[in-house]
Design a protein that fits this description.
3 domains; D-Maltodextrin-Binding Protein, domain 2; two-stranded antiparallel ribbon; elongated; alpha/beta
Amino acid sequence: MRQLPEVMLASIELFCLCAESANFSLAAQRAGLSPPAVSRAISRLESRLGVKLFVRTTRKVSLTEAGQRYFEQCRKAIGQIVEVEREITGQQTSPSGVVRLSVPTPFGQILLLPHLAAFRERYPDIQLHVHMGNRNVDFVADGFDLVIRMRLPPESELIARRLLDAELVVVASPRYLRKHGTPRQLSQLEAHECIQFMLPRTGMPVPWSFIDNGAPVELHTRGSFSVAEDPLGCVALARHHGGLLQTCRFMVEADLQQGTLKEVLKPFSGQTRPVSLLYPKDRALPLRVKLLIDFLVERFAGQR
């Protein structure tokens, strides 16, 4: 079997660090080397391979097409080696380290965070860094291990584990309904203020989804209010008489129980929105990440 010299393995690890950082100086700082030393190491690697791996500018470096292919394979190989080492050493020690998780604000606040203390009790040496936000993230650039999103992304390189199907409801405040009337048919939505949530990926409003005569229906509604980034802003507008809103039931369950919001168009309900746990296909998952995935799938199994 052909053996790789230790210096070659080190240069591959340094290459991956440069690719992830998109900056030789930052990579040098993280590796404890000088920027010239990093630049020389990358040049030697390029000479050995006979291809350019990076396009260099004064501000940053970016991968060439060949560099991107090399990075994907090197990252996968290094990840597999690291995971094997962790599994071997994990036989004698408890799982540890940091898991970085990005979650949508409403799902995180209402459904996820109440469970995380139980995970830490089960695995006290694992630290959880939770990012609350609704923007699209880059796993490599942003440094996340897992992402939870309320719509399945089109990227084929991501694995999606379904956590639950969130039921959609249409709600409004009692004051709004007294003033403008309660819609009984889908066609009556045209006469109402319908609060719009804008999709982060497209900047377009989310269509409203219903079941009509047993078939799914999507409607493009209109309204004077639109909210981007955080759907809890839409809930606040509905609570304060801004109009009708279609949202996930879990976001307004407390309002429905307290009477600050009322559900309408119940005969046309039944549509759901998937909430999924996402991670890259080509990444070898550390044990701590696998444990969090299994924990969350187990916790939400009864809500599917």
